[in-house]
Amino acid sequence: MISITSTARIRAAAVGISLLFPAFAAGQVSRTTGTVQGSVVVQTGNAVVGASIQLMNPSTKQTRVAATDSRGTFLFAGVAVGTYQLRAESPGFAAYQNNAVEVSLGSVTSVAIRLVPATVEQQVTVSGEPPPIDVTQTTLATTVGPERIAESPVVTRSYLNFVLLAPSLSQSNNPRNAAASGVLADSGFTFAGLRPRSNSLYIDGVENNDEFDGSVRTELSPESIHEFQVVNNGLSAESGGGAGGSINVVTKSGANIHHGDAFLFVQNGALNAREPLTNETTQPGLNRERVGFALGGPILHDRTFYYFGGEQERSRGDDSSLISPSVASSINSFLSSGASARLHTRQLNSGTFQVERAETEASGRLDHQINARHSLLLKYASTDNREIGDAFNLTGLADPSARGSSFTRDQGLTAGLNSVLSASTVNDASFQISRRKQVLRTTDQTGPGIQIAGLAEFGRPYSGNGERAEDHYEVLNTTSMLRGRHLLKFGVDLDQIHETASVSDGFAAYYIFPTLTAFLAGTPDEYLQSWGSPGTQFAVTRYAGFVQDHWTLTKRLTLDAGVRYEFEQLPSAVRSDTNNFAPRAGIAFAPSDQWVLRAGFGIFYDRYLLAAVDRGLEWNGATALQQVGYGSLAAQIFNGVLGGAPATPIAAVLPSIFRNSPNLATSYSEIASAGAQRLITKNLTVSATYLFAHGVKLPRTVNVNLPPPTILTSANASALGFSAVPPQQLGRLVFGPSRLNPVFDNVYEWQNDSCSTYHGASISVNRRWANEVEFSGSYTLSKTIDDASDFNTQPQNPYAIRAERSLSANDQRHRFVFSGTFDLPFGEEEG
User: Fold this and answer.
1) pLDDT given for residue 2 in this prediction
2) 171-174 long-range CB contacts below 8 Å, 24 or more apart?
3) Of 126, 161, 193, at which residue does a domain stop?
4) Same domain, 406 and 519
5) Do both 680 and 755 map to the same domain?
6) Does residue 713 register a pLDDT over 90?
7) Is 631 in a helix, a strand, or coil?
8) Enclosing domain of residue 673
């Protein structure tokens, strides 16, 4: 990286190691700001009443003032993150000034001030850091500041990669992020074994979630990120919008000095090792360039500031499939003979093929100090992403014709007003309007699609062709009030989402063959096709409100208590659940200055996944339906249309539909934690935490039209629709051709009777920056059990759902993470 501000300091890389499979995040004290509190005493220990306290940001000269109360204490709530100068004055005493008061996201910074008589000193200036243990916090959070973001190497240039440095948090099984949109991508990480689609991301206080699939929307350049926070077991009532984890991001703002950064990243695959499992002997090509810059400064000194950051990537490379050359040769020979004439894909790729990626991220922020009490934030951010042949359906057995491309554009406008209503009351109001437009296409858009089990997939796959637009309109308001020993917070949030979707899953027909021989003979085992209109349009509105009390009983004992209410108004065809009260409670007790014990419990309600809502509205039998044919009927259909897609529904096949359960309720999680934090040295802390998470009323899909299963025997095989039964199938439970409702074949119902259980213990070590070294590390031992790991997971036997309970797809038994930075022992840092 090339920086306009030169520096001779060089830092080491961060390292993260993950062992086995995935599992974690939840809650926060504040999404955008921090708190500064303190006490003022004289040398005898008596409190100083009415002392004047001034908190100033040296970069912007923005200033807050307060006075100590009858106990000699003061508090500044709603303070923007950054480094501040704190000054205390009282008649007859020397002024006190601390030039290094750090305010981090969601944190409480405590300052103890001892005044000396003015006859002894004219001014006492200190620059020491506050203790690394905060005895007033009931939540232990992981905060990644600007220095760690700038210094640590992230090849992907995604700031969300830093999330995985937090204890008990791990990568999901489907880590495609929203900008690289795969078919039903997710957030990329799991918290406490809960689903990756249940996490929430907030940028500058407003949500940044894709409500359709549970991923994230706008991506920002790390150059634009000032700080972000992962709260490992947060219990504040301000936290909401998801049963899983929560991440809060604050973007950079300008200052009184113009400052900029620029970088160029180039990667070439010439020195890369060849993939060991590929069939190709040649080295795949790769050329990747990423360029970016950031610039910030004043428009009007001490009043108006700007900050702009952006970066762009272009990547071109080669990939290859794992389809056996002999299998590909047999299929190509068969297709070249003219067989299955209406099958659109006529040639499987026999070598490498090119994939491309282009991404542009840009954001601009304007901060204006209206007067001493009110400040305004305006921000615009956009992401444009194109992935050609490398967005989804990337299994090794997928031919390039079946691979997917995505075209995604995100745009968002955010406004915020921070108002200091009095010395003890602060109000934050925010508004956003944003849009996501996404188009998904497969290389073969004509179809049909062919799957030969365990050998190859080519043509147009079942899913992956469609487009949608998602509009967000959000307004929220939060008020913080100091009343004696109580820091009260209350707020409301209104978020309306408009979804316009065209999901064309199965509309080009899809055939599944058990073997290569069956494909060459034209005898598929299964045929699937959708009919009707793939278009839907609907809106949902989320209402939320909370009340929270942060009560400092003594300097060693703090209680947090609150309640949050959330309600999501769904389309009229879907039941809306209104009984969603979520209590939260936490306690922090410090037996000594070196120890803090914490415990808490909270309920977190989830939001409804709009992809599931859309299925019930689209494939409802009236707008659209699906048909599934098996065995000889599937072969008859395939050969009757010469391997193509039928033009009209098949009269002999009953329709299959999706529907939403009439008893649908809001999913939620119950989270409990207990832990201890110990100060080992001045800058080194160790913590141990136990976390329990129970996912309740989690959604899954169940075919509710199947009759009870029957044990398959030689005598009843024919009646159950089996023409030939392998010996290993005898004695197993099977479902016959009859249906409970004879009007339909399969009726897939979106239910929420699934659950998950997580037990996890983690040990963390953290050393803050001192003597040119900082590091953090954690080890987590956990276990996650559930009976469905995603909303589209189906039980093998709807009549024995309890038998589905086993290790979750989100289970990760062991996880160790370490990261750190240090200065090399030569060179001097320049200012």
Assistant:
1) 33
2) 171/18, 171/22, 172/22, 172/196, 172/810, 173/21, 173/22, 173/809, 173/810
3) 126
4) yes
5) yes
6) no
7) helix
8) 259-274+282-705+740-822
Assess contact for 274 and 283: CB atoms under 8 A: yes
Q: Which of 126, 154, 173 is the last residue of a domain?
A: 126
Beta strand 466-483 pairing with 425-442: antiparallel
Whether residue 307 is predicted with pLDDT greater than 90 in this model: the reply is yes
**Confidence (pLDDT) at 698:** 96
- pLDDT of 147 reads 79
Both tokens of residue 821?
Answer: 């930075």
Helices marked H in 485-601 — which ranges? Answer: 516-521
Q: What is the per-residue pLDDT across 654-711, written as a single tens digit (0 to 9) for each? A: 999 999 999 999 999 999 999 999 999 888 999 999 999 999 999 999 999 999 999 9
The structural domain count of the chain equals 3
Q: 779: Cβ–Cβ under 8 A, 6 or more apart, which residues?
A: 762, 763, 814, 815, 816
CATH classification of the domain holding 110: 2.60.40.10
Same domain, 652 and 747: yes
**Cα 825 to Cα 803: distance, rounded to the nearest angstrom:** 60
pLDDT score of 246 more than 80: yes
Strands 33-42 and 108-115: parallel
Enter the DSSP assignment of 708: P
Q: Are 604 and 673 in contact (CB under 8 A)?
A: no
> Does 175 have pLDDT greater than 80?
no
CATH of the domain at 322: 2.40.170.20
Q: With beta carbons less than 8 A apart as the criterion, state whether 560 and 587 touch.
A: yes
Least confident of 184-193, 205-214, 271-280, 504-513: 271-280
Across the chain, mean pLDDT equals 88
- Domain identity same for 87 and 188: no
Query: What's the CATH number where 13 sits?
Result: 2.170.130.10
Taking the CA atoms of 617, 618, 624 and 626 in sequence, report the sign of the dihedral they define. negative
Rounded-to-integer distance, Cα 14 and Cα 150, Å: 11
pLDDT in tens, 62-83: 999 999 988 898 989 889 999 9
Residue type, 752: N
pLDDT tens string 431-452: 999 999 999 999 999 999 999 9
515 domain residue, yes or no: yes
Asked if residue 172 and residue 91 are part of one domain, the reply reads no
Let me know: does 522 contact 635? Beta carbons within 8 Å. Answer: yes
Residue 510 lies in a domain: yes
10 Å CB burial of residue 621 (0-12, 13-18, 19+) is: middle
Contacts of 326 (CB under 8 A, 6+ apart): none
**Looking at the domain assignment, is residue 291 inside a domain?**
yes
Window from 42-46, 85-89, 426-430, 644-648 with minimum mean pLDDT: 42-46
Q: Are residues 358 and 443 in the same domain?
A: yes
User: Which two tokens mark 817?
Assistant: 């993470």
Same domain (yes/no): 107, 151: no
Q: What is residue 130's predicted lDDT score, i.e. its pLDDT?
A: 62
**Cα separation, 477 vs 416, whole angstroms:** 10
Residue 626's nearest CA partner among 743, 706, 736, 746 is 746
List C-alpha distances in Å: 704 to 247, 280, 637, 658. Answer: 37, 46, 26, 10
pLDDT at position 798: 94
Tokens 């922020």 belong to: 365
Average pLDDT over residues 401-413: 96
- For residue 666, the tally of other CB atoms under 10 A from its CB is 20
Note whether 186 and 246 are same-domain residues.
Answer: yes
* CA quadruple 748, 751, 757, 763: dihedral, nearest 10: 90
Evaluate whether residue 209 is within a structural domain.
Answer: yes
